[in-house]
């Protein structure tokens, strides 16, 4: 048998009916079945997934290798088992609830052969409003660096890897991590790669958010996530020498996984888990949060992480509660220094360092806004617009260096105007065109975080605000006391879409554009029935 061009690895655990779509997209690849090997490992599924794998294997006996095993608790074991069986020149990993565009493997293999690449990223898009960072897919790139590109933000394993590189360095998944095991695998592969390429001109990979949200990532809890973060940070520290390269990778870990552990939902946890998170993150911050990394973080993340190191759990919870329930705190200006007057700031009983609250060098502090009103309105041309009213306690934004304030739903800019200033603060009117939101969204649905930034609109900074609490240079709008508004239904081609402003679990304002499909309607009805 000739060596296949690509071995496709599919770890499987209870993903029907999504699995059928996944496998169908593989057998229909334009690269042709003669150039492929599909290795599917059933990790003790209790639904019909195992039988579905056997059905495809019976139909395509020369294409499929199916392994059935007892449940291992995560995808790492199945991926390693498949890697040991792989014979292709390249390896590609597919989640069993996701699927590929028809030309995906053909294009990826051709690019790797043409460029001599060890790793190739193909554009990933979200389905059912699953959020996927898109900054790495801004354009086709023959070669990118791990250390001066957005790649550290996109270390999922949904990439093409040269197999002999994986074998040369014996790169495998850590099987002691039930979640997040693809990060160290992908990171080491990218670190060892001679060339990493990006293909952004085709939708290669469709990452599906299940309507039931029952996969292992969505079900993970804070204690398990903390353990994963600790293991991954330790892996980075062991792989990359201290300095700017390590910081470039760790900055994204702090901005995403670590910041995600101190979001507003921490308030809902039991005291023991809150303390576990506070203490664990405090150790990571003390050891690994350099000034260079801190400068890349948004204000909420920077302040909250400082309090895991320098404050008590109650200090941290008070700051989170202020953001979640009270809104933007006042700013104390003393000469050239500025401080966020959160609870605990200069409280003689708390003894917290001023440095925890120092926002002097945080460029987006003046852009931190609370949404106070939402409404669908008609603009001067009679077109529907989403009007967001927002407020900051800062009387004059210019006093904090805010010469221009712009707001966007990631790459979609809004019409932004300051409509009132005074001792009570500044009020801003933000308008998004329904037509722009619809036209700019993926046909399968998309959610965007609304953020503000100083200066003229910069889409790169706006995309960065999609991180846990807003990347440096932009700030996600919060809606702490907002109940929402009525969704707007609009047609795009032959399909109806629903545009809905909503809040995520950390109180950030998001705009969701989703297609009306039978599966979505059925899932919604099931949710309503369960609530009764």
From TrEMBL:
Coiled coil: none
Pfam families for this protein: Glycos_transf_2, TarS_linker
Molecular-function annotations in GO: glycosyltransferase activity
InterPro entries: Glyco_trans_2-like, Nucleotide-diphossugar_trans, TarS/TarP_linker
Record's keyword annotation contains Glycosyltransferase: yes
CDD domains reported for this sequence: Glyco_tranf_GTA_type (cd00761)
PANTHER family in UniProt: GLYCOSYLTRANSFERASE (PTHR22916), GLYCOSYLTRANSFERASE EPSH-RELATED (PTHR22916:SF51)
Protein name according to UniProt: Glycosyltransferase involved in cell wall biosynthesis
Organism of derivation: Plantactinospora soyae
Domain TarS/TarP linker residue range list: 229-319
């Amino acid at each position: 048998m000739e060596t296949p061009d690509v071995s496709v690895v599919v770890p499987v655990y209870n993903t029907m009916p999504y699995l059928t779509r996944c496998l169908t997209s593989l057998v229909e690849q334009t690269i042709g079945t003669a150039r492929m090997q599909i290795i599917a490992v059933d990790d003790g599924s209790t639904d019909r997934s195992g039988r579905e794998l056997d059905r495809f294997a019976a139909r395509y006996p020369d294409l499929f290798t199916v392994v059935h095993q007892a449940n291992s608790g995560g995808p790492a074991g199945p991926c390693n088992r498949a890697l040991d069986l792989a014979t292709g020149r390249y390896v590609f990993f597919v989640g069993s609830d996701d699927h590929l565009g028809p030309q995906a493997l053909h294009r990826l293999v051709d690019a790797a052969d043409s460029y001599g690449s060890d790793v190739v990223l193909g554009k990933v898009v979200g389905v059912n409003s699953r959020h996927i960072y898109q900054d790495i897919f801004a354009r086709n790139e023959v070669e990118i660096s791990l250390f001066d590109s957005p790649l550290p933000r996109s270390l999922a394993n949904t990439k093409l890897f040269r197999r002999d590189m994986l074998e040369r360095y014996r790169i495998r998944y850590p099987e002691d991590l039930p979640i997040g095991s693809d990060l160290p695998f992908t990171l080491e592969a990218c670190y060892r790669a001679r060339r990493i390429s990006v293909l952004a001109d085709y939708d290669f990979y469709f990452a599906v958010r299940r309507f039931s949200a029952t996969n292992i990532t969505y079900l993970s809890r804070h204690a398990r996530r903390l353990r994963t973060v600790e293991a991954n940070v330790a892996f980075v520290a062991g792989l990359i020498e201290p300095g700017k390269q390590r910081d470039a990778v760790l900055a994204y870990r702090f901005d995403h996984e670590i910041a995600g552990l101190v979001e507003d939902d921490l308030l809902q946890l039991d005291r023991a888990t809150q303390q576990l998170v506070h203490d664990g993150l405090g150790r990571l911050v003390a050891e690994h949060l350099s000034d260079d990394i801190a400068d890349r973080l948004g204000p909420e993340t920077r302040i909250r992480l400082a309090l895991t190191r320098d404050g008590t759990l109650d200090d941290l919870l008070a700051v989170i509660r202020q953001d979640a329930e009270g809104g933007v705190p006042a700013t104390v200006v003393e000469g050239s220094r500025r401080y966020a007057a959160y609870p605990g700031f200069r409280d003689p009983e708390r003894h917290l360092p001023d440095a925890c609250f120092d926002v002097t060098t945080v460029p987006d502090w003046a852009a931190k806004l609370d949404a106070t009103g939402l409404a669908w309105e008609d603009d001067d041309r009679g077109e529907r617009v989403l009007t967001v009213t927002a407020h900051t306690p800062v009387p004059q934004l210019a006093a904090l260096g805010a010469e221009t304030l712009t707001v966007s739903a990631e790459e979609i800019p809004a019409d932004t105007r300051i409509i009132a200033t005074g001792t009570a603060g500044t009020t801003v009117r933000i308008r998004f065109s329904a037509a722009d939101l619809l036209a700019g969204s993926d046909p399968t649905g998309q959610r965007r975080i609304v953020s503000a930034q100083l200066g003229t609109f910069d889409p790169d900074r706006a995309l960065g605000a999609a991180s846990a609490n807003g990347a440096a240079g932009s700030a996600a709008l919060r809606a702490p006391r907002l109940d929402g508004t009525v969704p707007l239904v609009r047609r795009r081609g032959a399909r109806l879409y629903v545009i809905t402003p909503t809040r995520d679990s950390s109180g950030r304002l998001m705009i969701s554009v989703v297609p009306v499909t039978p599966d979505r309607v059925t899932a919604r009805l099931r949710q309503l029935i369960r609530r009764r």
